[in-house]
């Protein structure tokens, strides 16, 4: 994956750690595929993670991976995650992560709690009654939830590549904007492209500018190549301080856009 250039126009170069970025991908917004030995690759309809980062995966009870667990207490597996930008771009893949570990089925007594956890990121009808004792336990539910006990994590994105131990991964937290990033980026792209272009340092030549990614420390911009260049490039715009909520993010944007407006000729 090509590495992106970064801007030096702000006061801090702080950014999310590799463990934080992996936990953000494991939150469940990015596309996930489950890979196990002897079982075909299986896209996961919905997944999220518990407080310790253990993935919770919604699968059909009749799926090959669930059937494999009928005769084994656990099986080795990998959750492959592809982070795709919500804005339509030529190259939308922003990063990838691989969570390796041991796959098990969530016990019946814990199924309702797992379904509620999953529904925070994915309010799907399949989760409404799953594990709910008030509706009775059907002989064979159409859906079930698997969990992955993480043994190792790999991540590869614009920051670089890293391999993480399970403790380092579990101790991190996902980015606070992971659930709303797509809406923010699509709004910026549809309504604020001119303002985004004004955020670039004067020394950076560029054509149109599109929003690529957002986190509490800053954002990535996709800068189209000027007429005399051959490729586009990604540029990191770091905030002067990290933000933790939408109020703080709006305040940062107002300052950035006001400064960009003052610098216009």
Over the alpha carbons, how many angstroms does the gyration radius reach?
21 Å
Which structural category do the helix and sheet elements fall into?
Answer: alpha+beta
Residues in helices, as a percent range? 25-40%
- Beta strand %: 25-35%
Which runs of at least 5 residues are low in confidence (pLDDT < 50)? Answer: 1-12
The oligomeric state of the chains shown is single chain
The geometry reads as elongated
Mean pLDDT: 87
Total DSSP helices? 7
Number of strands: 12
Q: What does the main sheet amount to?
A: 8 strands, antiparallel
Order of helices and strands: EHEEEEHEEHEEHHHEEEH
Q: How many angstroms does the end-to-end distance come to? A: 36 Å
Description:
By secondary structure, this protein is an alpha+beta fold. It has 7 helices and 12 strands. It has helices spanning 18-26, 64-68, 108-121, 166-171, 181-191, 193-198, 246-263, and strands at 5-6, 31-36, 39-43, 46-49, 55-60, 75-84, 93-105, 143-157, 160-164, 209-215, 218-223, 233-238. The strands form 2 sheets. Strands 2, 3, 4, 5, 6, 7, 8 and 9 form an 8-stranded antiparallel sheet that branches. Strand 8 and strand 9 form a beta hairpin. The chain is elongated. The two termini are 36 Å apart.
């Amino acid at each position: 994956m090509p590495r992106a250039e970064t801007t030096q126009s702000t006061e801090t170069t702080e950014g999310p750690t590799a463990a934080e970025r992996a936990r953000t991908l494991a939150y469940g917004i990015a596309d996930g595929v489950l890979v196990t030995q002897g079982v075909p690759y299986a896209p996961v309809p919905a997944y999220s993670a518990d407080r310790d980062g253990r993935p919770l995966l919604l699968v059909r009870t009749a799926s090959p991976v669930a059937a494999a667990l009928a005769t084994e207490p656990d099986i080795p597996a990998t959750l492959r995650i592809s982070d795709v930008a919500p804005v339509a771009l030529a190259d939308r893949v922003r990063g990838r992560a691989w969570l390796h570990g041991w796959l098990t089925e969530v016990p019946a007594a814990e199924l309702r709690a797992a379904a509620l956890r999953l529904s925070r990121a994915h309010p799907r009808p399949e989760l409404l009654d799953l594990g709910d004792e008030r509706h009775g336990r059907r002989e064979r539910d159409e859906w079930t939830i698997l969990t992955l006990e993480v043994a190792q994590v790999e991540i590869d994105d614009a920051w670089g590549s890293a391999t993480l131990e399970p403790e380092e991964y579990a101790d991190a937290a996902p980015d606070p904007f992971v659930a709303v990033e797509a809406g923010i980026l699509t709004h910026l792209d549809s309504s604020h492209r001119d303002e985004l272009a004004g955020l670039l340092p004067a020394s950076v030549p560029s054509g149109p500018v599109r929003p690529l990614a957002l986190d509490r420390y800053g954002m990535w911009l996709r800068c189209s190549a000027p007429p005399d260049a051959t490729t586009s490039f990604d540029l990191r715009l770091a905030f002067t301080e990290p933000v933790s909520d939408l109020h703080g993010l709006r305040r940062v944007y107002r300052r950035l856009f006001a400064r960009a407006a003052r610098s216009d000729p």
